[in-house]
Amino acid sequence: MNRVHNLICSSGWWRRRVERKLVPWGLGTAELGDRVLEIGPGFGATTRVLADRLGRLDVLELEPRYCEKLRTELGERVTVTQGDATRMPYPDASF
After folding, report:
1. Has residue 27 been placed in a domain?
2. According to the model, what pLDDT value does residue 84 have?
3. Above 80 in pLDDT, residue 51?
4. What percent of the chain is helix, strand and coil (3-state, nearest 5)?
5. Cα 55 from Cα 41, distance rounded (Å)
6. pLDDT given for residue 83 in this prediction
7. Beta-sheet strands, E only, within the chain
8. Are 65 and 43 in contact (CB under 8 A)?
9. Helices and strands in the chain, H and E counts
10. What is the pLDDT of residue 81?
11. Are 94 and 63 in contact (CB under 8 A)?
12. Distance CA 92, CA 78 (A)
């Protein structure tokens, strides 16, 4: 991510936009299962919104610094795994 992307994605403005506009639009009336995987959460704006809506949320993030930030800020609410989405460490049909 570049500096501008980091600045925008870590802002309160972006978090509010994700919560109020993007997640409701993206999910629509979708029925989510008991276990959901978010790939590439970065700063976690979407992660926070999903964690409030779901029973169990797993995230797969490539960057160790974002993994640590998410673990620190979200604690038990989210299971954070550091890894590459092209080699996911989950058994088939986990989500």
Report:
1. yes
2. 97
3. yes
4. 50, 15, 35
5. 18
6. 98
7. 36-39, 57-61, 78-82
8. no
9. 5, 3
10. 98
11. no
12. 20
Let me know if residue 95 belongs to a domain: no
Q: CB count, 10 Å around CB of 10?
A: 15
Range of the domain at 70: 3-87
Q: Is residue 48 situated within a structural domain?
A: yes
pLDDT at position 12 is 87
Residue 64 tokens, joined: 């160790």
Number of domains in the chain: 1
Measured in residues, the chain has a length of 95
Q: Enumerate residues 6+ apart whose C-beta is below 8 A from 56.
A: 34, 35, 36, 79
CATH number of the CATH domain containing 21: 3.40.50.150
What proportion of the chain, given as a percentage, has pLDDT over 90? 62
Instruction: With respect to residue 92, please indicate whether it lies within any of the assigned structural domains.
Output: no
Query: Look-up: residue for tokens 């029973």?
Result: 55
